[in-house]
Write a structure and sequence with these properties.
Strand content: 25-35%
Radius of gyration: 23 Å
Largest sheet: 7 strands, mixed
Shape: elongated
Strand order of the largest sheet: 1-15-14-13-3-5-6
Number of strands: 28
Helix content: 10-25%
CATH topology of the largest domain: Purple Acid Phosphatase, chain A, domain 2
Structural class: alpha+beta
Number of helices: 5
Length: about 450
């Protein structure tokens, strides 16, 4: 995590603005509040105090679920919590000037009764699929379409279940929109290693078709919450942005996650955001898509040991892009094969990229602290004996989702799978780079034929 900028207490916080025509908004979720005097009321108030310091204010707010603690079988209890949330905790917000769009969550719409209360209290648009009016809906704001999905519909099975036919038709009907966002409560892909079908993620029978719809429709990002963290990752070119830091502080991993909101801007060049904590500090930033330099600005790396293109501490502004092309090793090659390593002399690599196992799977290790076990990221496999041409990013501004790969011919980024809550932001860039082996020529050498390795720091 990087601190890009911080404000004095109560000082205005400059918002990220659209570069020309565009949209400016705030994303935050999982306050789990609505009870007077409860601890979450206080933490949610701190995040709202930060939001109110944004200048200019957001044009709209997205809240992907769990506004109230909910999880009650008594509808009157839910109504009281909603009324406290709307009439007291959010009384500062002029919802006519700055609309707030809510999605359902496991605390707020966990059965048919609570779904009915959600509809009644929030009165979201009723243009969703049959049976989900007011729970799933679509909003069009000029060249932006936002589709809100219900990821725990009682009519399909409850938590982790989401309807996809209406989503497909709705995105097709708004194909002319320049910007497309989909908003829901549950992530599709694990966050910080927290995995579990239905309880922590959308169920597997829905997840693959759901994500394919987003990819084929040209959706920029799926915005969700549920896991108490901030996280960004990309799969098949579509971002998954998880923001669940609006108030449930007591269950956040200490020293890793923090109360926060995400302030973002959309324009013709893409998405920019800043993640701001409850003290007004900007903790993480991103500009997406990543703009890579032209090929003539890349440095071709020779096999063996060489000085690094850059060394020193990581920062969001320091991203390593690599390209590997060659012929994969023959079948039954299972030993680790080094493509690239970055290390201090006489130390284990702080960063190791290579192929492992009989499937020759792309693997990344990061070891930011000597004497500690490395963390692992897994990518695709290569075909034994066949040509491969892979580009990679090690992006220090994207946390654990910032280890990315793409087929150089296709140009679609995906994050590698991992179980870490941190990424390259903790990585010290060592002064030596090694291509084709791990440090000693006999140490985990690449067993195929390397054609080119090139790199650029951006």
């Amino acid at each position: 995590m990087t601190t890009a900028w911080s404000a004095a207490p109560d000082a205005p916080i400059p918002a990220v603005l659209a570069r020309g025509r565009g949209h400016r908004f705030v994303l935050y979720g999982d306050a789990c509040s609505g009870v007077p005097g409860a601890p979450h009321e206080q933490t949610f108030a701190r995040v709202n105090a930060t939001l109110r310091r944004l200048r200019p204010a957001p044009e709209f707010i997205l809240f992907p679920g769990d506004e109230i603690i909910g999880l009650s079988g008594d509808p009157d209890t839910l109504r009281r919590q909603w009324r406290h949330f709307l009439d007291h905790e959010m009384a500062w917000l002029d919802r006519a000037a700055t609309p707030i769009f809510h999605s359902t969550g496991n605390h707020t719409a966990h059965d048919r009764m609570s779904e009915a209360v959600f509809r009644e209290v929030l009165a979201m648009p009723r243009n969703g699929p049959p049976g989900q009016e007011g729970l799933a809906y679509v909003v069009r704001r000029g060249d932006l379409v936002m589709v809100v999905v219900h990821t725990l519909w009682s009519g399909l099975g409850g938590e982790g279940h989401v309807e996809t036919d209406w989503l497909r038709r709705t995105l097709a009907a708004h194909d002319d929109a320049r910007h497309k966002l989909v908003i829901g409560h549950h992530p599709v892909f694990p966050v910080n290693g927290f995995a579990g079908a239905y309880q922590r993620q959308i169920g597997p029978e829905h997840a693959e078709p759901f994500w394919t719809i987003l990819v084929e429709a040209g959706v920029l990002a799926y915005l969700c919450s549920h896991i108490l963290a901030f996280d960004v990752q990309v799969h098949r070119g579509v971002l998954q942005i998880t923001s669940a830091g609006a108030g449930t502080a007591h269950r956040m991993p200490e020293g890793v996650e923090y109360l926060h909101l995400v302030q973002a801007a959309l324009d013709d060049q893409g998405l920019r955001y800043q993640v701001i904590d409850s003290d007004g500090q900007v903790r993480e930033t991103l500009t997406w898509p990543v703009a890579l330099p032209a090929a003539d600005r890349w440095t071709r790396l020779a096999p063996g040991d060489q000085p690094a293109l850059a060394a020193g501490p990581a920062s969001a502004e320091r991203t390593l892009a690599l390209r590997f092309s060659g012929i994969a090793a023959p079948e039954r090659t299972a030993a680790p094969q080094t493509l690239f390593a970055a290390r201090e002399p006489s130390a284990l690599p702080a960063l190791w990229i290579g192929l492992r196992g009989a499937t020759q799977r792309l693997t990344v290790f990061m070891r930011p602290e000597p004497g500690r076990s490395p963390h692992l990221w897994l990518g695709p496999t290569v075909v034994p004996g066949q040509h491969f041409d892979i580009e990679m990013l090690v992006h220090a501004g994207m946390g654990p989702g910032g280890v990315l790969w793409r087929d150089a011919a296709r140009g679609v980024w995906s994050s590698l799978a991992g179980a870490s809550a941190w990424g390259a932001e903790r990585l010290p860039w060592p002064p030596r780079w090694i291509v084709g082996h791990g440090g000693d020529p006999q140490d985990e050498p690449f067993a195929g034929t390397m054609r080119t390795v090139s790199a650029v720091m951006v």
